[in-house]
Structure formats: structure tokens, C-alpha cells
Amino acid sequence: MEVRDGTGDLIEIQNIGRQFNTRDGTFEALKDVNFAVEDKEFFSIIGPSGCGKTTLLKMVAGLIKPSSGSITVDGQPVVGPGNDRAMVFQHFVLLPWADVLTNVGFGLEMRGLSRKESREAAKPFLDRVGLTRFSEHYPHELSGGMQQRVGLARALAVGPDILLMDEPFGALDAQTRQLMQEDLMRLWDGEQKTVIFVTHSMDEAAYLSDRVLVMDTHPGTVREILDVPLPRPRDESVRRTPVFNELTAHMWHELRGMMGDPTAAAPE
Amino acid sequence: MALEQREGSVPVVAHQTGGAVDGEVGVVDNGTVSIEVAHRWVPWLFRIGSVGLVLLIWELYGRAQETTLFFVPFTGVVSALWELAQTAEFWDAYRQTLIPFVWGWLLALVVGIALGLLIGRFRTFEAITKPYVTFLNALPVSTLVPIAVILLGIGYASRILVVFLFGVIEVTLNTAAGVRYVNRDLVEMGESFNATQWRLFRKVILPASTPGIMAGVRIGTGRAVVGMVVVEILLVAVGMGRLILRYRGRFQSAELFAVVLALILFGIVLQVVARRIERRVSRWKYEMERAT
């Protein structure tokens, strides 16, 4: 395991806060969030529902502005979406009127390529997720797992340094989810991109990540950042190692405390 | 990367074209296609049966009358229409009616879609135009017909204006609603890829709004046809309107019904065309709905 000394930081999040005005006064969604993600790191954010993890991810994407604090990528402050980042969404968000290949090329089209050029450029990425045969099918003709592969290929096609993944496998059934995790792992081993991965699955976070940020809720803030000392490349068997089990047990202990489970407060 | 095998719960619609989807991905198959084809005929049977029944009642009721002065059986109307269709006067009247209609209708579509897009997309624009839209929507447009005629005379211009006014509001409102209810996730996805406002509009918002736009076109077309007839009957006795007034005055009921039937046929043709375009442009929506 390399030492996290802070010198290779690519993304820096400093004192992020986010308030909403509601009828009952100000609601603090995020407060004093500080962390940094290193270059080529697989970094997961885990936390209970409503802790603001998706909001945080969208801030890095440049889709939401923080009320206070700053986010920098490679030293440059984030002011909006950028060509260095691409996002993968929980509910896939594919264009229903366009076929698979056009969907994969969509990010490129948004960046100014013609429909024809982007479809052409999209082909190798579709191939990488194993869906070449389906290039002329429409999203509603595909299963959830296949739709998310299209979502992933679309993000990869723009050649981002940073992949922002918002519970990408959250809408899939358990078996598909596990397959997708393994495929993502294999892809990541080959691509070496920086990934921020939001999830509420502890297994998923432990299996995929170099580090896992556990978020506290009300207000959302950093509770702790865990190192995942599992060797790479990983395969399915790491799920049965003691280190893996200890990690997930620890995460569960932390999360359970936040979820207002009365048994969690009992003396051990 | 391996494809996952068999996700049985997700039906994959088998495409008739080439059948590229095969067993490997767990396509639910055989049978569904033929069932769908069978189903497609059922509504048609009911439609034809329903129209046939009404025509039959019309025919019988007409024949039961002592005179054809007031009510004419269906076959009488059809033969009157056949007779009329042999005359130059009829086709002349038809043309006189249709020319201003086509202009007013096209104008209503172009202006309505453009306005609707602006209203749906920009809050400020919506605020500026809202009083006028509400006004036009609240008012029976027929009341504007006399004013249009006073302002523009009895030529094409006033009739074009009336057809336009009848049609434009539905096109505008439906288009605006189509734009406003575009899935926010799609817009956010477009933004996340660093899209310019223009590209986002052209590549995401516009295609996503087509179902609303096309609904506006279809409804607006129907309204425009109403406008076309109303102006001719109410004030400017030209074209088909003049024929209607004349045959009414002379108690030539068969011819009167025939003219009305001719207008109805025209209206139906337009509706069918609008529907066809709608299905073609927003085919993805129908297929998506059928798949879920």
C-alpha cells in the first residue's frame, strides 16, 4: 500500500458547506467537509441515505455550487462542469430516442463533434463494455445492467481523468450488481483513472476502493476515511478474506450508529 | 467483458427488423409478437363497427322521415356529394376555403411552436407572454372574428388571421408544457458533459419535447379547421361557408349535409396526417411505453 502523504492529491475539497432555506429555517446538508483524492485513486463515499453524498459528488461534477468552501481539481477551482470529469448516474439517464451507439457518443456530441463523428469515436468504448452487437438497439430494449454499461461507456468515451459515479449499480439487482462490480474493477485496472464512487453498499465500497470515506449525517460531514489494504488486482475471492470482513463490519458498526438503531447504543 | 446472462425480469422487445436480439441476453420471446398483431385488429373492428352502426341509424332515421327537407339519409348525402363533386363551383369553393386555411394553419404551427419553446425554456419570457396567453385561452376566439374582419376586410388576410388565432394557442401551450416537463435528469446529464446552452437545447430539450409539440400540432390543427368554417359562416360568405348558407336558405338539405361531410372528410384527413407525423417523430415514446 502506498503512503497517503497528500502530495499526489488531484481533487481537494476544503471546508465545504451547503445550506438550504426551508420553511423551518436553514437546513444544513453539508458542513465542514474536508478531504482529498489522489491521482489514479479509487475513492468511495459511503453513508446513510440523505447524508449529502450525492450532493457532494455533484459539486465535484460542477453541477451544484457549494454554499461555502472550495473544490479544486489539479489546483484549478471547480466553477462548473469540465472536460476533465464525466459522470455515471444511478438511473442511467440515457436518451430514450437515440440508439445505443448515439448514446455512447452523446458526451462527445455535447462537446462539439458531429453525430457521425461521435458515433464513430464511440465504437471502441461500446466494445469495451461488450455491447457492440447492441449498437443499434434502443435503451428500453436493454436490461438495467446493459443500460448502465452504456452509461459507463458514454462517460469513458469523453476520455475524462476523473470518473464520478453516483450509486451506479444502486438500481440493479444483486447478481447483476456483483457482475458489474467485477467488470468495473477489470476496466479500472486497465484504465487507471481517478474515480469517486458514491454508494451505500459496504461490500461494494470495500471491494472496489483504495479508500472509503464514511459520511456522518445531519449535517453531512466526514466521519472517517478508511484505507482498504487489499492487494490489487482484486478478484472475487477478496470478499472472503478477514481484512474484507473486518472492514465491512467496521463500516456497518459506524453506519448503524447513525441510523438511530437503538441496539447500536447498547454497551458492548 | 462478459455480458450478463438472462435477466429474465426485463423484457426485451423483439424487433421485427432482423431479429438482432437473440437468446443470449434472455429475450422473452416467441408468441408475444403474434399476440400483439392480433390485438392491433381488435380496436379497428370496434371502430368500424361503431361508425357502421351510427351510419345505419342515420340511414334508417332518414328513410323514416316523410320529407328530405330537414333530414336526409346517409346514402342521400353521399349521392348529393357525388353530384356536387362534378361541379366546378364546388371545387372552386373548396379551394377558396382551403387556401387561407393552409396559410393560417402553417403560421399557427410555426409561431405556436416557436413561442411555446421560448415560454417553456425561459421563465422571463413566460412571465412577459402570460397575460396574452391567458387572455387568448379564456376568450372564445369566435368573438374576435368580427374584429378581424373590420381590421382586415373580407379577403384572405382576415381569414388567415382567424384560422391562425384558433390554432395558435393550443400549439403554444402544448409545446410549452412539453418543454417544461422535460426530464430534469436528462438536462443534468447534458450539463454534466459540459454542453453549451444551445447544444443542450438542440440535442436534449428539443427531442425530449417532441411528444408535447406533436400533441399541440394535432390539437391545434383541429382547432384551426373549426376557425376555417366559423369565419365563413359567421361573417365572410365565401367558399364552403357560402355554399352552406345558400343550401340552408333553399332547404337543399342533401347538398347542405354533403358540404358539411366534405369538410369533415378534410378534417379527418388532416387529423390522420397529424397523427402519423406524431407517431413517427415520437416513436421512441410509444415504444418505451409499450416496453414498460
Structural overview:
The complex is a heterodimer of chains A (268) and B (292). Chain A has two domains: 8-84 and 162-167 and 192-258, 3-Layer(aba) Sandwich (Rossmann fold); 85-159, no CATH class. Chain A is built from seven helices and ten strands. Chain A has helices spanning 53-61, 100-110, 115-128, 144-157, 174-191, 202-208, 242-258; strands at 9-22, 25-38, 42-46, 68-73, 76-77, 85-88, 162-166, 194-199, 211-216, 221-227. In chain A, strands 6-7-8-3-9-10 form a six-stranded mixed β-sheet, sandwiched between helices. Chain A has a four-stranded antiparallel β-sheet with strand order 2-1-4-5, with helices on one face. Chain B folds into two domains: 27-64; 72-291, MetI-like fold (Orthogonal Bundle), CATH 1.10.3720. Chain B has eleven helices and no strands. Chain B has helices spanning 32-64, 74-84, 88-121, 123-138, 145-152, 156-180, 184-192, 197-234, 239-249, 253-281, 283-291. Chain B is globular and about 75 Å long. The two termini of chain B are 27 Å apart. The chains are: A alpha/beta (268), B mainly alpha (292). Chain A binds chain B through residues 61-63, 80-83, 85-87, 89, 91, 93, 95-98, 106-107, 109-112, 128-131, 133-134, 136-138, 140-146, 149, 158, 173, 175-176, 179, 183, 186-187, and chain B through 1-4, 7, 9-10, 12-13, 15, 20-21, 25-26, 185-186, 188-195, 199-200, 203-204, 207-208, 210, 282, 284-285, 287-288, 291-292.
